[in-house]
């Protein structure tokens, strides 16, 4: 039995792609007979299964990452060292994102452990986010967040004993990076899920799910709405996701108001994971208009459900969608092309049924039962190396 430690300076109860995948990996490796140790903030609501030991450590949320994560690690470094020693930890599995930037480097430097780093995306690949923006707060954002995270990510890549990446688009970060894609749970996401009839209030429902954030491209879809409702006037657009940056009120609501489409739009917060499949199944079209996307879990989940998916041709999304076969790809940040694709799928019943029919079979290989053994074998090889 291997002892594997994972650490997260945030609550795994959140329903983001990284949280869902990290939870699935931890639970899957525990089910495979490994002893799993998870370090979380003490206020975390995440409670999980057999063979998983949870340590809640003090956490103070700072206003800007990566400093929250670094402070969490520094403040608790002595307790973490004791956990590693007392539990005889074989390997530390770091899930790389903004708030864990620097963790692979610091675990090697401070604790001398073997480290597996799973990259869920690199800030340097998010061209839209890292570019300089014309406002007075931009120097603070660049020098307080963007540049430190990019430096720490570089140190992590150099330091980790092994790196896995969730899409082939990320394999260039290191020559020996191993591609292990994200997965879905077929018990939740399958073509037999029934929709929620009351969720659909108009003839057509277009749904966009994901964290409300500029790189997720919600504004691109809103800009496409006037063109869509000219061809399909009885269409509603539902945006699902939490607004951590207050983008709805600062940008999206005024944008919708200026375009005269407010009455066609509904914003709802993220729902519990167990409710999501039926909500997705209620849509006629799922739109993922991201400007950057390391993998695209929403795409995978909806393909598994047999939904009609239109998504940006960026990052790992083209690895999931074959254009015109199991979904539709569109250029990123192009409201006109996005509108054309949505109108086509809404009005062409044959095309819509064709891509829905092909979708579930195309992603069976991404079932969690096929992905977890790959992590288990890789970790076993790292420990015995």
Q: Strand order within the widest sheet?
A: 3-2-1-4-5-6-7
CATH homologous superfamily classification of the largest domain: Glycogen Phosphorylase B
Number of helices, counting only DSSP H or I runs of 4 residues or more: 13
End-to-end distance: 16 Å
Structural class of the secondary elements?
A: alpha/beta
Give the helix proportion (percent range).
Answer: 40-55%
Strand content: 15-25%
Domain unit count: 2
Number of strands: 13
Global morphology: globular
Largest sheet: 7 strands, parallel
Summed over residues and divided by their number, the pLDDT gives a mean of 92
Could you list the spans in which at least 5 consecutive residues all have pLDDT below 50? Answer: none
CATH topology of the largest domain: Rossmann fold
Summarize it.
The protein has helices at residues 17-31, 67-75, 77-86, 103-111, 127-130, 138-159, 218-231, 247-259, 276-281, 297-305, 335-347, 349-362, 368-384; strands spanning 3-7, 35-41, 52-57, 91-96, 115-119, 162-165, 178-179, 204-209, 235-240, 265-268, 285-288, 309-312, 328-330. The chain is an alpha/beta fold and 385 residues long.
Keywords:
single chain, 385 residues, alpha/beta, Rossmann fold, 2 domains, seven-stranded parallel sheet, six-stranded parallel sheet, 13 helices, globular
